[in-house]
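Hey, I was hoping to borrow your eyes for a little while. I've dropped the whole record in just underneath, so have a look:

——
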Amino acid sequence: MESLRYLHIDRSGEGLNVQWKVEDRPLRERLIQPIALDDERQFAYRQLVTGIEDGLTLVAEHEGQIVAGMAAKPNLARGVLEMIDLRVDFDHRREGLATAMLYRAIQAGRELELRAVAAESPANNDPANQLLSKLGFHLCGLDALRNSNHDLVKETVTLLWYETLD
């Protein structure tokens, strides 16, 4: 991931009278960071690819190498297709691979007659946030404690995105 911007989250108030303000800001310095595939996502990929769970997995290849991948699975109780992972190799960014994969996920959600496609991204992953916004996903919430008790301070808040399927 390479990013020059992030979505700054400002919290005010207490208890049930809490308010959140989201503001696009430049990062103090360019962020270049690999996004490792954690154990949970590796397990989800394995479950989907082997057919143990229902879902959608896509890969894009170039000259025999996988350059992009996506995994999503339906959550029928919530009526959404949950994006588990979407990644594009650094050298193949801005070629439309992620856009095509997200459009395919939206199509799959409609085919399953679900109400929405759900995605998550960290506030400091500007490319992902810009892509989701461009494709019509709505920022519907955040989790300021997903990874640690200091996510808000570290500007790594998890953003919750939804694309409604009407």
In short: Residues 44 and 121 are 17 Å apart (CA to CA). The longest strand covers residues 19-32. The domain at 2-164 is CATH 3.40.630.30 (Aminopeptidase).
